[in-house]
Predict the structure.
Amino acid sequence: MTTSSPAVDPHAAWPVFDGHVDLVYALQRPAAPGLAAGAFAPQRLAAGGVRVLTSALYCVDSCNGPSAAAHLETLIAADAHWLDGLPLIRTRADLAHCWSSGGPPGRLRLLENADALLEFGVAAACAAGIITVGLTHAGRNRLADGNAVTAPGGLTVAGWRLLAELGEAGRVIDVAHLASPGFWDVVRDYPGPLASTHTGLRRFCDLPRNLDDDQLAALLGCGGLVGLAFAPGLLTRSGAADLEGVFCQLDWLVQRYGAERVGLGSDFGGFDGVCRGLEDHGRLPALVARLQQAGYPATAIAGIMGENWRRYYAAVLPPR
């Protein structure tokens, strides 16, 4: 795999909507520099053209059970503390303002591992501004099995009950970490919006964590959206990933399914290692340059870099 990258034009940043970023997880790590410096510094986000981020509240599997609700409360508080400079998006009007204002990027809240909702409650999650919900992380919880579970099953009785509540509340379900049986339960029966916010493709990297061709066809066929992750461990079995590899997988998705249902779900902050040429958001103009080099039209590039996610969430969020 090549490690060369197109030259980056600092004036070529296109509006970016990143469908999955582990901001809170990254900022809580020891010696994390905070938003003022490091990978998420304002100048790097600005250099990448970032307008909106979907910020994950990652509930670790070790907290699953009745104590998970308290853990979720600490994550919401941490999100409010660390990300105070990034406006919280709750409505379509908020999204439109962040997309066009030229101010700091806005953020949507995503819950990664919804075990806590059995005590915390869907109403409280909605009040906290959680728009998108992933039922599991990698392990087993009281709702379903995640992608790392051996011989996994589908949704539990509690999982089905919570899924119905989330549907009534109009939440987006993120299928990124569900094991295959749970994935199919959700895709076949959930009446609301679906997405895989940060994923790799099993065709390129054969891992249970990644989506296979049948899953992609089903998810995209029902109006879902796929965010391609930049995590090296999801892109290649060797763990050595670069911009060209990301482009190849994006290009395969577009050639197979069209450019309208593909976006970015970098997972920045949520993985170790580096995708060479896409080390942080400030390098995203290099991906634009590669798409231009391949002859992608402006409308397709705009969609992949952010317009597809913007349009998707504009249809989900309440007007005001």
